[in-house]
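hey m, so remember when u said the tokens were messed up on ur end? i reran from scratch. heres the input so u can diff it against urs
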Amino acid sequence: MSDENALVEQVRQALRGVIDPEIGFNIVDIGLIYDVAVDEGGIARITMTTTTMGCPATDYLRSGAGEAAQNVEGVHWADVRLTYDPHWTPEMMSSVAKEYLRGNR
């Protein structure tokens, strides 16, 4: 695995520490993170979404993602971009997140 790929995986792991306050699970496994890339200058570029447009937690999640990425050694800045293309659906959740939500109903 290249250093760049290792850094991307470290950022993804850090993003798992950001918990969606409404769902109660991390933003990676609920499918809110669409893409993570880290360029040679240490800039993490994160493309993410929220479960709905106008989600009241949007700013919280976006800033949490940026802070989590910037806490990874080797990342000097995080550019977090929000998109609704494609729109989030529950099918985007990992099996771990789906199981968690089934158990919390």
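this time it looks ok to me. Helices lie at 3-15, 58-70, 95-103. if urs says something different then somethings off w ur setup not the seq
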